[in-house]
Amino acid sequence: MSDYLSGHRSAIEAAAVRGWPALETAPIDGWLWRYSSGGSTRGNSVATLSFHGGDVGRAIDAVEDLAQSRATAACFTVSDLSQPAGLDAKLAERGYAIGGHHVTMAKQVALGTAMPDGIVLCKATTPGWMDVYLAGLAIDYRAAAPALLANLPTSATYLSAVADGVTVASGLTIPDGQFASVQCMATAAQARRQGWAQRLLQAIEHVAERGGQHILYLQTSATNEGAISLYTRMGFTTAGHYHTRSKTFVVASEGA
Fold first, then answer.
1. Cβ atoms of 33 and 11 closer than 8 Å
2. Measured between alpha carbons, how far is 31 from 42 in angstroms, rounded to an integer?
3. What is the structure's pLDDT at 255?
4. How far apart are CA 78 and CA 100, in angstroms?
5. Sign of CA dihedral 193, 238, 245, 99
6. Sheet containing strand 119-122, strands side by side
7. DSSP the chain
8. b or e along 126-153 (b: 16 or more beta carbons within 10 Å of the residue's beta carbon)?
9. Which listed residue, of 16, 34, 59, 85, carries a Cα 20 to 30 Å from 157's Cα?
């Protein structure tokens, strides 16, 4: 990663938190507890980029109380930027299991990127866009996704790749100061390996340049080798890694 991007690492991660707001949140000593009824990692975990409390154990207790009140697991997003220092080890000591590993990638917006053919921009989802995006999600995430999308900033731009009048790929970008996201990338099964994802990325870069953004960022599973390979070819480099730590609680039934 370039020194330029490295200097913006914390701001990129903060933009990613804002770029996929949860349906329900609560501040806990600088952390942000997030709940969205399943599926999304960002939408259902504690963002830990800042902490100003005096007792990390008590803050974890507060997270666990909220989790139990929603009959869900307590889940934290953890990286080398997490506060306070040593949080990952503290969670491990309390029985939190390590979960999925993810990567944050970023690139400087290139000047003069043209809008490719076959890409349609909208300020809201369309039925075709939604069909393509939802088809690639796990069932629990698919149920929660429409509400999460409806909760996005109104500045979002939805991009559809259209071939012969049919939407074959989806993408989404949200501007945030000098940053712009790459989100909701999906391609219909029958249209894969035809360059649609690359065209969507070029279109997002075009939109970002016109909007005055200087850095594109995205987050994806560290095991998604195909996507990471594509993003690398398009000029993205690794900005950081993060993983989850979660703990499931057994909720006693009434009368037990």
1. no
2. 13
3. 45
4. 11
5. positive
6. 119-122, 157-163, 166-173, 183-187
7. --HHHHTTHHHHHHHHHHTS--SEEEEETTEEEEE-SSS-SGGGSBB-S----S-HHHHHHHHHHHHHHTT--EEEEEETT-SSTTHHHHHHHTTPEEEEEEEEEEEEPPTTPPPPTTEEEESS--HHHHHHHHHTS-HHHHHHHHHHHHTS-TT-EEEEEEETTEEEEEEEE-EETTEEE-EEEEE-GGGTTSSHHHHHHHHHHHHHHHHT--EEEEEEETT-HHHHHHHHHTT-EEEEEEEEEEE--PPPPTT-
8. eebbbebbbeebeeebeebbeebbeebe
9. 34
Distance, in Å, from the CA atom of 110 to the CA atom of 105, rounded to the nearest integer, reads 15
CA distance linking residue 34 with residue 27, whole number of Å: 9
Residue 113: both structure tokens together: 């990127």
Q: Structure tokens of 112?
A: 């003069």
Q: Among all chains, which residue has been given the structure tokens 């970008």?
A: 173
28, amino acid identity: I
Per-residue pLDDT of the chain (256 residues; tens, 9 = 90+): 677 778 899 999 999 999 999 999 999 999 999 999 877 888 999 999 999 999 999 999 999 999 999 999 999 999 999 999 999 999 999 999 999 999 999 999 999 999 999 999 999 999 999 999 999 888 888 888 999 999 999 999 999 999 999 999 999 999 999 999 999 999 999 999 999 999 999 999 999 999 999 999 999 999 999 999 999 999 999 999 999 999 997 654 444 3
Return d(Cα 220, Cα 198) in angstroms, integer: 16
